[in-house]
Amino acid sequence: MTSSDLGIRADPGSFRDPANRVFHAAGQVLRGLDPQAARHWAALADSTFFTGLLAEGKVCGTEQVEPAVLPGWAAVLRHERIPFVSHPYEWSFGMLRDAALLHLEILRRALPAGFTTKDGSAYNLQWRGASPVFIDVGSFTPLVDGEPWAGYRQFCQTLLYPLLLEAHLGLDFQPWLRSRVDGIEPDQMRRLFRGARRLLPGVPTHVHLHGAMQQRHARASSVDVRAQLRSAGYSRELALATVRGLEKLVRRLDRREAPSHWVDYQRTCSYSAQDRAEKEHFVETAVQAAGTPRLVLDLGANDGRYARIAARHAAAVVAVEQDPAVADALYGALRAEGDRRILPLVMDLADPSPGGGWGGVERAGFATRAHADVVLALAVVHHLAIGRNVPLGQVVDQLLGFLRPGGRLVVEFVHPDDPMACRLLANKPDGLFPEYRRDVFERLLAAHCRVERQRELPSGTRTLYQVVAGG
User: Contact, 93 vs 255, CB < 8 A?
Assistant: First the structure.
């Protein structure tokens, strides 16, 4: 009997370390360990540093189960299920920085206990709301004195370099990480940090020296490099000093403030106080009608006003916002509140995250991951249909595609005579959007959904709909 016969599915993003692999079976997240990895796990599970990280929630919940559930592996672990899997190129600057700091804290606590991590990838972390959590338990391995941290290059390419780009150059890092699953190469960074930029914090050591050493070591075997480091006196204490130096550097990095219209959107938009109150009541009633949703998507979340309303009744909320500055402000607020239900993400809904990595499936696209019980699409349709020239029917199809069967969509249609729609239409040729009308929108909804409720806001230029997919 094969694994597929038992309903076991290998995670397409877990294959690069042959010593262990993640699987999904009957709603469980399982990790198979080979004999050596099983021995390492036994030592790790007995260590006080690891049990401390588990108790603090900094490492995902993990327990050993009977190996029979995954035939062919020496030992099997069961992990807690993360509410929504996201990728580093969907995180804000503050999220990436906090993820980097957690990675370094875990390494700093592991080294004195005689452990290290095999890698340093940003993909080793996920989120419970606004709290990062380390998920790659299979990365822990006993420390061999005199050997450098094997994950340093990955840490630089997927965590440190993106932070340096935004902190020093004011460049949004998300497109850079999205374009390469392995992150930003030192050679790319060296070309960006020339002249006076060479002296910016973190650049001399972690960009230029790292790049030069990498080129030198490329001409030598890994055994030679490790032997050279040991003979040079590389020690656990030096490794700890390196980690502490990286922590100090990362903490000092901050994103450059850039002007953003959307930061003040709630103050500058055309809603009246009565409109806003009606809208909040409509949203809360719709989420309550779904019982206790496992997942709510708030598309175009801005400051998280409606995500917070949804979180009163849902297990988890993913708040998607296109503007990195707005998403970062939302993350900062949620982090300060200790929120563990709302996950803010940076994403352009007209260009959502595609599948990437090996085979195009190693990192699942957003549409593959987003199967929600409730989708909130408030003040979004006109931006996609008018601002981005997406046909209205395709906008409706995309929104409904994010729902589980029987899920609810709460969508706002901004009439063509609304001030915001007029502003968008003013920059378009006359007659370009003849189908952008309320009657057309309602006909498209009726073709795929059952409209449970609708409410025209007091301003008279916006209408809310609560629909059930497939109705």
Answer: yes
471: tokens are 């109705």
d(CA 417, CA 462): 9
Report the alpha-carbon distance of residue 444 to residue 324 in Å, rounded. Answer: 32
**C-alpha distances out from residue 274 to 281, 428, 459, 465, Å:** 11, 31, 8, 18
How long, in residues, is the chain?
471
Assign 1 a pLDDT band (cuts: 50, 70, 90).
very low
Rounded mean pLDDT, 218-237:
58
Q: What is the mean pLDDT of residues 46-54?
A: 97
Of residues 213 and 140, the one with the higher pLDDT is: 140
**How many CB atoms are located within 10 Å of the residue 393 CB?**
16
CB 291 within 8 A of CB 404: no
> Please, are residues 307 and 319 in contact by the beta-carbon 8 Å criterion?
yes
Q: Is 432 exposed, middle or buried (0-12, 13-18, 19+ CB in 10 A)?
A: exposed
CB 310 within 8 A of CB 298: yes
Strand-pairing partners, residue 409, are 375, 467
Residue 222 has pLDDT above 90, yes or no: no
Q: Note whether 425 and 416 are within 8 A (CB).
A: yes
Return the SS3 of 389. coil
101-152: per-residue pLDDT in tens?
999 999 999 999 999 999 999 999 999 999 999 999 999 999 998 888 999 9
